[in-house]
Amino acid sequence: MWIIAAGFLIAASITDIRKKEISVILIGLFVATSIVYSIAFQTMKGNDFLYALIPGSSLLALGIMTKESIGYGDGLLILALGILLGLEKCLITVGMGLAASAIYALVLLAFRKVNGKSRLPFVPFLTIGLGVTFLVGYQR
């Protein structure tokens, strides 16, 4: 499960950095793979599947409300991540990614490399968040 998530997030990070967008095909494959994995290995029971959709759905809603200040691709990736990892691990991963991106943004602001309206790719930080989540012991 961790290898699947890391593989898709690394691929998405590369395109997010280079093109400032995430491939719809890659997102579709990640969602499909997450659903198949979840069903095949019965990783979620009862309402867990619906709860796992909350982080991604919330980001998609924020993307709509902010006229895509938060990209739809980010929300869809987190939706797939929730399906694959479950609510708890997904929230921790997103939280770690947000913390990493905030630190990076503050450093860039301090050195005046960006301004308040600059856009940074989020998926690389989400990938870092996944790695930190794995390393701190949320592998179960």
Short account of what is shown:
By secondary structure, this protein is mostly helical. The protein contains 7 helices and no strands. The protein has one domain (2-135).
Q: Per DSSP, what share of the residues sits in E-state strands of 2 or more residues?
A: under 5%
Largest sheet features: none
Described by the principal axes of the CA atoms, the overall outline is globular
Order of helices and strands: HHHHHHH
The percentage helix is over 70%
Distance between the termini: 10 Å
- Whole-number mean pLDDT: 93
Find the count of extended strands (DSSP E, 2+ residues): 0
Q: How many distinct domains?
A: 1
Low-confidence segments, ≥5 residues, pLDDT <50?
Answer: none
Account of the 3D structure:
The protein contains 7 helices and no strands. It starts with a helix and ends in a 5-residue tail after the last helix. With 140 residues, the chain is mostly helical.
